[in-house]
Amino acid sequence: MNVASEPLPLVAHHEAGHAVAAIVLKRQMFDDDREFPAFSSVSIYPEPGDGDYHGVVMGDAFYSAQGFTSKRKPIFEDDMDRYLERDGAIREIVMCLAGPFAESAFEGYLDPRDMAMNASDANEGSSDYADAKRIYGELRFLMPRRPGWRRIEDRTARLVLDHWSAIEALAAHLLVKHDLQFDEALTIVAPHLPPMPAATPPERHPQPA
What we know:
Blueprint lengths: L1 E5 L1 H20 L13 E6 L6 E6 L10 E2 L2 E2 L4 H28 L5 H11 L4 H12 L10 H14 L1 H13 L2 E3 H8 L20
GO biological process, one term: proteolysis
GO molecular function, one term: ATP binding
């Protein structure tokens, strides 16, 4: 996920938004952060010649909500498979939008509607919005009625605001060390996230004498 050339603090918060959202959303699926890393690295780097910066969170290169298709029709084993793919697509959209939304919050837009409007205006045509809109369009392959775009924006705004201290902590480290591997980023943000739920031990049945 790339961000257009911008001043360094803005880029740091943008990329931190992507990274924190990826960690938070991955935790909804898995109870071990390191077994299934949310991304490989998060970086900000100078654009040669003009002094501005770009950023990137390295993870999956491409996501398609259509899944495997035959003659443009998705193939799913059952409805549960379809629902899981649908939820994954919506999480992917939120991760795309979290960077621009964190950028808006850094600029002082804290109302979800204002945050969404500023994020859209400032990032029109960016890869973040292009990817989010592409996946949103593909949701028609997964469900007869898509959730409203505004509902997804509101979910993104809540995620960014609820985890703002984690985003700020990661952005502060990016301003010092411009490249962080996943384990480094996780160590920074983990104290700012709710604790992981304790694993439920397997049920023990009494053995016959």
